[in-house]
Every structure is written in structure tokens, then in C-alpha cells.
Specification:
Blueprint lengths: L7 H11 L13 H6 L4 H8 L11 H16 L2 E5 L6 H14 L5 E6 L2 H17 L1 H6 L1 H10 L10 E2 L2 E2 L3 E2 L3 E3 L12 E6 L9 E2 L5 E2 L3 E5 L4 H4 L2 H13 L12 E6 L7 H6 L8 E4 L3 E3 L4 H14 L8 H15 L1 H5 L3 E2 L20 H12 L1 H7 L17 H5 L16 E8 L4 E8 L5 E9 L16 H5 L4 H17 L3 E2 L5 E2 L3 E5 L6 H10 L6 E7 L18 E3 L2 E6 L4 E7 H13 L8 E3 L8 H7 L2 E8 L2 E8 L7 H15 L5 H13 L9
Parallel strand pairs: 1-11, 1-12, 2-7, 2-10, 10-11, 15-20, 17-25, 20-21, 21-24
Antiparallel strand pairs: 3-4, 5-6, 6-7, 8-9, 13-14, 15-16, 16-17, 18-19, 22-23, 23-24, 26-27
Amino acid sequence: MDYTGLSKQAKYDRKQKSFGAEIGSLPAVVNSDRKEACRFDLLLYLETYFPNSTGLRPFGEDQKRAVKRIETCILTGGRFSQAFPRGFAKTSITEGAAMWATSYGHRKFVPIFGATDTLACSNLESIKREFQENELLAEDFPEICFPIAALEGRPQRCGSQTMDGNSTYITWTADKIVFPTVPGAASSGSIITAHGLTSASRGMKHKRVDGTQQRPDFVLIDDPQTNESAASPTQVQKRLEIIKKSILRMAGQRSTIACVVNGTVIAEDDLMEILLDPKREPSWQSERIKMVKKWAESHETLWKEQYAAIRTTFDPATVDDQKRAHRDANQFYLDHREEMDKGAEVCWEWCFIEDCGDAHQVPEYSALQHAYNILIDDGEDVFQSECQNEPLPKIQLDTDDVTVDRILGKMNNLEQEKIPATCSHLTGFIDVQQKLLYWMVVAWEENFTGYIVNYGAYPDPKKDWFDLKGVKKSLQSVAGVGSLEAAIYAGLETTVNNLCAREWKRDDGSILRIGRLMIDANWGESTDTVYQFARQSSFASVVMPSHGKYVGATGTPLTQYQKKPGERVGLNWIETSKAKRGIRYALIDTNSWKSFLQERLKSPMGSKGCLSVNGKDKNRHRLLAHHLTAEYRVRVEAKNRVVDEWKLRPDRPDNHWLDCAVGCCVGASMLGCGLMKDKIVLKKKEARKDRVSYMDF
């Protein structure tokens, strides 16, 4: 370059400019009206300046409310926690909010915290790309974008960069941006930094050009936890303490810091769930956003049964057959869309895979279909946490507890209804539900070794796998009556006659009949019907209504009840009567007997007291195994005793054959079956006459 005729200063200035240090004068704002319109409107800013992300599709009302909450926090302060479903532009909104706050000078120092350093720095990298490449921002925010563009992606130029001869003091690193110092610009010297949540955050500050110390005045926390940390109470507590003791104290003692936490609830009692609970964290305002606000009226039928069957029926060994199944499911949805959409309400109508002509991707046609696809493909557990921000409760199972596979390992290879010659008793139980009657028959040896010889439901769904909600052929439809009570009565009559009238053959050719058939009388609308049927049945000597009683750790065990005249008291059951009923019934401590059943299912094959299942085909009995493991126990200590309290697993709402198996165990106890220690207790009972000792199984 020719410097002939230039003064010494001019030569220096020209050299600096040629080295990229002097960038010249600031360009004018292209559209000041557009820029000014967004000054106090975060939503408009996101929609206007980011047409390929937050401005691509209109937000739903829940998202708009979330954006408004961030805007309020930036402008006026506060603490807000917000749970978003995955894929709801949470991170894009967070990044855009940091840019809006600093670009307009609403906030001067904004740290962004992520679950890890890497994730936080990826947020900052995304922000840097927008300032470098976003043409709309370059037009309206030249005081920020012009000096950044002049760096040409070379951070080493920051120290020497000048504009009109004045240093810009810009910083452009992987974890920190310091905006150019531009006289009169609201953004001048603003700071955005990136940090992992568990990184050191105490004493965070930045010395400004004028020598003052700038402390953080607004904090954005994006996805503060990992799957691992969310599942660890220790890590949850550690991250909560960091937020409360370090991050919220960064502004110093003379001012408060504004803070927004945007995340997704991953597990029960994780960090996000704690921050969302006003009772546990009353200083935070919060909202939990769900992908689906209301399921379709055809949730159980068209969606979970027919649509799901089409979508999941494909040959896994055939290339592209899964895509074929997905296309077939799409066509089913389009053919029945009006009925399948009826009654549903989604949070964001644009949350689905659109048809973009990509042959490698099967499109979707609505946000509702997208939600059902996730539910069907990934299961309720994933959907509840990732999409609804309501994870299923954590279940702490004992390592020795019965599992589905463990039950399926107890197939005894006997033919269905084949009874070993060693058995001397048959018991049955019927669990009454609105649509179906679930039933079971178990053969017993005197020592409580049992064989589930048959089980089923009436009316028979004729499927190896079904759930109660999805059943179409119900008691009322089969009975052809309008009254539910009449339908239950008719169903009981058919089922009891089928079970009690028949002769059950043993291996040695001798005949057994059911000695005790109990019927669940706890279901509200059926109680009177069950008693009426038991009184009028031709098998009244065998049939007995039963009531399960939940006896928790703080309750009084049935074995401590004072025996009344005419009552039979056994191991955690009482056979009694009420005058108004006119018939005897059984009262059962269900917690105790579920624990007893658990031990029978855990007992190894061939041992005394083992309960096994007649059959060979594991798939045929897989639904039974799911019913038998539909509850989990929590050991609770109170009143100087430890009791198993059984609770229904949320992912297995059907536990009806579990209730049947428990009832069959109680029936066997009533007929005299017992473990050796049970017989000792019974002898003590006979000696005392009026009481029976409590036995923990």
C-alpha cells in the first residue's frame, strides 16, 4: 500500500485499518420504526428478528404467556420458573430473551446457565451466530453487529479494534460476549456469559470501561439438569443450593437479581418440579406447560387401539416397512380426522412434522397426531415427562420383588385346567368392574402350594392383550339391558354357573369342585347387587361377598379386633355378617395378603408354598404377569410395627387378576390351607378362642 504524502498519524491510522483494527464509522439504522416497536415487546422482537426460528410459526397462548413472563422479569424483576415440553422453542426463546435484554439496554450483565459448561456455551454460540449472520439484526442494530462483523470470526482482533479511532473494548470468546462500547448506544458494554450450573459463580463481576464493577442483574437458566442429575436427590439438592446460595446472590447485598429458569420436568421431585411447587419454593412464580391439554374423545378407541395397531404393525426385518405402516396410519387419520380430533386440545398447533417433500421422512398432519405418535412410539413414561411435564411417580422396587419376567419363569408346563393329584382344594375369585368381570381359579395343596389353573374375563375379549378402558364388548352390551346392576347380576350368574357347576378333574381321575368362590363387593355401584346374587345363587353355600380393607401402618390389624359371636377370625381375615345383608361376608386385610401372595410368587418352583401358572406359552400369560405386578410395596413403620403398604403403579392401571389371586389365597386359608408357621398360629388361636396373633408375611 502506498503511504507517500501522508502524515505520520495518517499512516498509522491507514495501517491500523488495513490490519482490521479500525473499522470506520457506524452505519445508520435501516428501519428505526421496526426497532423501536420491539423495544418493550419481547414477543414482537422474537417474531420479527428471527423468522427462521421463533418467528417461523405463530406461538400458542401458553408460549405467549411464557414469553410475557420473561419480558416482565427483565423489565421489572422477579423469579420465574417455567416448564416447557421438549421441542417448544424453549431454548430459542431463552437465547432471544438474552439478546433482547442486552441489545436494548434493559439489562447490562446476563449470565446464561446450563446443565453443563458445554450446553451453556452452545447457547452462547447460537447467540453469536445470530449477531454475526442475522441480516435483520445487522440492519437495525449496527451498534452491535457492525463491530462484530468486522472481526470476521477472529477473536484476536478484539483487543485492537477501533471505530472512528476509539476502542470498542469488544470481547468475543467461547463463554463471554462484551458488546462494543459505542457512545449513546443502549447496548454499549453489555455482557452475556455462559456457565455450567455447577461451575463457580460466586463473585461474578466485570470491570467496565469507566472502571465501575458490573455485577449480573438478570440470570437466564436454560435446562438446569441432566437425566442423571434429575434422578439423583443428592444432585438435585446440590443444584438447588447453587441457585439459591450462589446465583441468586450474585447481584450483591444492595440489590436483587432477576431470574428466569426454563426447563423440562424429567423425573418426580427433580429440580424443575421443586421450583414449580409454590409450597416448597414460595418465592418463585411458575407455570407447567403441557403439550396436550385435553385428549380426544376417541383416545382409547380410534387412537390407542385402531390407529396404534396400524402404526405399530410392520415387519421389523423388512426395510421401509415401518414407513409403510406410518403412511397407512396417516391415511387412517386423514379418513377419520374429524372424529379423531373431536374434544382434543393441544398447546401449540404448529408442533408437528410438516410435509416438506423429504422422501426420508413421513410427515404428520397435526400437533395432536404428533402427540399421539410420541405416546404410541415411546410410551407413557416418556410422554408424561418430556411432553406433559408430569413424570410418572418414581417406584422404588425391592431388588427381590416379583417382576413380569420372574412370573413368566413360573410356567409349570401343565395343561390348562390340569390339576395335580396332590391338590385338595379349589378356590375362585371374581373382581367386579363396570365393563367386565375378571375371574381366577387356583388349585391348592394343604401346604399352600398353588396352581393357577385358569383365569379370564367375562365377557371374553378374546385377546391375549387388552386393557379395561379399551374393552368394547361390555357386560351391558352382552346382557342387552340398560341397567348396570342387571348387567352385573347377569354376568355373575353366567360366570359363577360356569365355574361352580363343572367338575374339575385331577391327575388321578378324582373330581374337585370349587370350595370357596368369593366376589368383590367393594365396587360402589355393585355392592347391593353382589349381595343379592350371593343370597339367591344356587351355589350360595360356596359363594361369599368380600370386602378388601386397606390396613396401613397406622391402622389396627384385623387380628387385634375383638371377636364377636358367630364370627370366624383367621390370618388377617374375618368372616362375619350383618343383619341387613342377610348373608355372611369376608373382610380382608389386603396389604397383608398382597405381601403373602408376593412370597408365594417368589417361592422357587418345587418348594412348598410356591404359586405357579399352568401353561407353557409365556406370551399367552404376559398380561396376567402385568396384572400380578401392577402394584408395588412401600414399607412403613408406625406403632412399633413394619407394614407393607401396596400402591398401584401408574403405568399399569389394571390390577384385577392381582385382586383375584389375593382372593383365591384368602379362600384357601378359609378352607384350611396353611404354611407350617400358619398352623402354629392357628393352634394358638384355638387355645385362646377369642384372639389370633398377628403374623407378618
